[in-house]
Amino acid sequence: MYFRMKITMRIHALCFILGIILSATSIRAEEERLWQLHAVDIQAPYAPAPMANGCIGILPQKEPFAVEHVMLNHVFDAASPHIVSRVMRGINPFCLSMKIDNKKVDTSNISDWQQTIDMRRAVHQTSFHTLEKADVSYELCALRNLPYAGLIRVTVQACKDMLLEVRSGMGIPDDYSQSSIRYREMEADGNRMYMLESDATSRLGYRRVASTSSFLFNGEQIKPMYDEATRELFFSIQLKKGETFCFSLVGSVCSSRDFFDPYNEAERQVIYAVHEGEEALMQAHYRLWDELWQGDIRIEGDDDAQRIVRFALFNLYSSCRGGSRLSIPPMGLSLQGYNGHIFWDTELWMYPPMLLLNQDIARSMLDYRFDRLPAARKKALAYGYRGAMFPWESDDSGEEATPTHALTGPFEHHITADIGIACWNYYCVTRDMRWLQREGYPLLKEIADFWTSRVTRNQDGSYSIHNVTGADEYANGVTDNAFTNGAASLALKYACQAAEICGEKVPEIWQEIGENIRILQFENGVTREHSTYKGEMIKQADANLLAYPLGLITDEYRQRQDLEYYAERIDQKDGPAMSYSVYCVQYARMGDADKAYEMFRRCYEPNLRKPFGVISETPTSNNPYFMTGAGGLLQTVLNGFCGLQITDEGIVQLPSALPSHWKRVTVTGVGSDKKTYVRER
Fold it and tell me: Does the chain have fewer CB atoms within 10 Å around its N or its C terminus?
């Protein structure tokens, strides 16, 4: 009897332990599921999602091994003579194709197709069965550890005896006028290298771009061949039924913007990759993404929202990198939309989430502006102003790059104030005194000097700003635009504060203007967008930005008045995704969870594209990921539902409300001290 009880107790104990193990495994599997986005129907509508590392962006498609193009960050040439600059597509070294028993693998002969984006590891996975002879899977990534390179890892499992042939080519887009492709075989420290190489000159000769690729065989002795007719590198191998064969393709793309000798650097990058080996490359890539994910957002109670919000953060992390001194264009590194130029989208929408979660990336976005301060000074001089006047659209030169037919170029001046606000917020988060003295205050001073020369003094002692385009770009040539005036007043205030901290004399005119710029109202107290505004349709939120993010309207009654008045005046067809983001933040902070959640959904749902949840710019457009919308969406959770706010004293957490079905929001890695903030129902 005793032994029977003892055995029973041991069985119960083992069952208990097994239950704990199974429960932990289930929790891990559930958590992993929230890091993944899936596609399972190759015939369904398909909006591609870029894989990027801050320097290059690779755009995979649904067809086997298809890569639409490779985008280069801030590598520009003119689209045609006398036309403004346009960001360039790179030479594509990821042109991979496969044959089985001399029949090409394509969409006509594959089944069981599926794709997964693994956000945690930053890889794009595809798998399928083909020709009833093989199961094929591959992973594509833009290597975080080699920012000018990418990797495709392929696994082929033979279901029958078969001959496998794989080819790799170079795709040269029409951004180039002169190009060449060649085969290079060399020995480096005892290793025989077989490389496909290409170089090209941009259409108008402003940039040179070079690319190199090579197969990696994980120690197997396979010698690729070069096909002179097709200019492709290829190999073939006989596989037995049940045998598994793995290989990789590594490719690099370098330009004369980043390297004096891009041709040899592209070759060096691939030689380095071959000597490192596939496993070491991928482990380094994973480690760097683990570091990025120290700054994360966790939503409990709404798995769909979790994936959508995390995907927005993934895309912003992918689009920039600390130390690059580059910023993020509206479409990131997905395509040539808006010519790859930098707008206010950076400072007002994308920068705030990065400042909270990754100060290295935020610093890079500010470095971008500081490096182009001389060009901003020249623009101010050219238009008769003092200080620095930043361009509405900036390219690598820092000069105005807006197409000449668009009035935003000469008249959308709030961009200069937006940059000043971003500077001050960086100091508030980091308390980097050395940076403030050497870069932050000099930049704020130039911005303040611009606004003192830009305003006009009225007879009553107030100040007006005439003839501008505001955030609402449907209204050109207006006076006293609400957002422009509000942003200018804050930039002047922050310049005064920075001067005091740095021990500099504060010009009295800065404070006088900052405190007396006009913010107009209708008779009922609603903020008037500009002096002649009468309720017309607006492109996007403008007057509402005074409450958030500017914080100039704090009275809840006034905020609600403004929200209710302007919400239905936004262009529902062609308005961008961000407006409802600021509405969501304000309602959440006022404790109106239902209204906040309504605005949360409105800021992305009409713009969501299958299968992965790419956010398009407008409800009617179909571009790849709109990074500006990602920034707005992240602010709804960080600044709205979680209540985070950057103040002169640093980051604080304000009261806010969660949607009724959300249990908890946890934000990790916030600020320089990597704090965790939680908001629970």
Answer: N
Torsion over CA of 560, 562, 563 and 564, rounded to 10 degrees? 80
Q: Which residues, other chains included, contact 324 with Cβ-Cβ below 8 Å and sequence gap of 6+?
A: 54, 55, 73, 147, 364
152 phi/psi in degrees, rounded to 5: -120, 120
CA distance 394 to 368: 10
Inform me whether the pLDDT recorded for 678 exceeds 50.
yes
Alpha carbon distance 100, 497 (integer Å): 69
DSSP letter, residue 528: P
- Is pLDDT above 60 for 433? yes
CA separation for the pair 412, 487 (Å, rounded)? 12
Question: How far is it, in rounded angstroms, from Cα 245 to Cα 153?
Answer: 11
> What's the rounded Cα separation, in Å, for the pair 86 and 339?
4
- Measured CA to CA, the distance from residue 369 to residue 386 in angstroms comes to 17
**Could you give the C-alpha distances from 673 to 1, 290, 314, 352, 357, in angstroms and in order?**
60, 17, 21, 17, 10
Of the residues 232, 267, 412, 617, only one is catalytic, namely: 617
Residues composing the chain: 681
- Asked if 548 and 348 count as a contact pair (C-beta separation under 8 A), the reply is no
CA-CA-CA-CA dihedral for 522, 528, 531, 536, to nearest 10: -100
Cβ neighbours of 399 (radius 10 Å): 17
Q: Which of 648, 485, 618, 498 is nearest to 552 (CA)?
A: 485
| 68 is known as an active-site residue | no
Cβ count near 598 (within 10 Å): 17
The CA angle 393-398-400, to the nearest 5 degrees, is 45
Cα dihedral 405, 411, 416, 418, rounded to 10, equals -90
User: CA 291, CA 657: separation in Å to the nearest integer?
Assistant: 30
Catalytic residue among 139, 446, 473, 529: 473
The pLDDT tens digits of the residues spanning 523-537 come to: 999 999 999 999 999
Q: How many other β-carbons are positioned within 10 Å of the β-carbon of residue 487?
A: 32
This prediction has a pTM of 0.94
Confidence label for 190 from pLDDT (cuts 50, 70 and 90):
confident
Give the tens place of pLDDT for each residue, 14-67: 555 555 444 445 556 778 899 999 999 999 999 999 999 999 999 999 999 999
- Concatenated DSSP letters of 213-280: EEEE-TT-----EEETTTTEEEEEEEE-TT-EEEEEEEEEEEETTT-SSHHHHHHHHHHHHHHH-HHH
* Cα–Cα separations (whole angstroms), residue 202 to 89, 255, 260, 308, 437: 10, 10, 15, 37, 40
Q: Where do we find the tokens 């901290």? A: 501
**Rg, Å, the chain Cα set:** 27
Say how far apart CA 621 and CA 574 lie, in whole Å: 8
Residues facing 527 on adjacent strands: 521
First-to-last C-alpha distance (Å) of the chain: 52
3-class secondary structure, 669: strand
Instruction: Report d(CA 486, CA 514) in Å as an integer.
Output: 9
Q: Burial, 633: exposed, middle or buried (Cβ in 10 Å; 0-12, 13-18, 19+)?
A: buried
